[in-house]
């Protein structure tokens, strides 16, 4: 899956902005714990991340 499509899909599923999703996936510190958990859980469900 294309990176932009992954970010857009996760953003749509979590209700977060694509920018927030991108920051979480890049490991940036300036995101809330709630947003980080939502993005990482969704990414695992989509098979984007292991774990």
What can you see in these coordinates?
- This protein is mainly alpha-helical and 51 residues long.
- The protein contains three helices and no strands.
- Helix 1 (3-14) packs across helix 2 (18-25) and helix 2 (18-25) crosses helix 3.
- The mean pLDDT is 90.
Quick description:
The chain is mainly alpha-helical. Helix content is 65%, strand content 0%.
- The total domain count is 1
Euclidean distance between termini CA atoms: 18 Å
The gyration radius over C-alpha positions equals 10 Å
Number of helices: 3
How many strand units?
Answer: 0
* Overall average residue pLDDT: 90
The percent range for strand residues is: under 5%
Shape: globular
Structural classification: mainly alpha
Which spans of ≥5 residues are poorly predicted at pLDDT below 50? none
**Helical coverage, percent range:** 55-70%
Query: Biggest sheet, open or closed, and with what strands and sense?
Result: none
Return the string of H and E elements. Answer: HHH
Organism: Klebsiella variicola
Domain HTH lacI-type: 5-51
Protein name: Cytochrome-c peroxidase
GO molecular function, one term: DNA binding
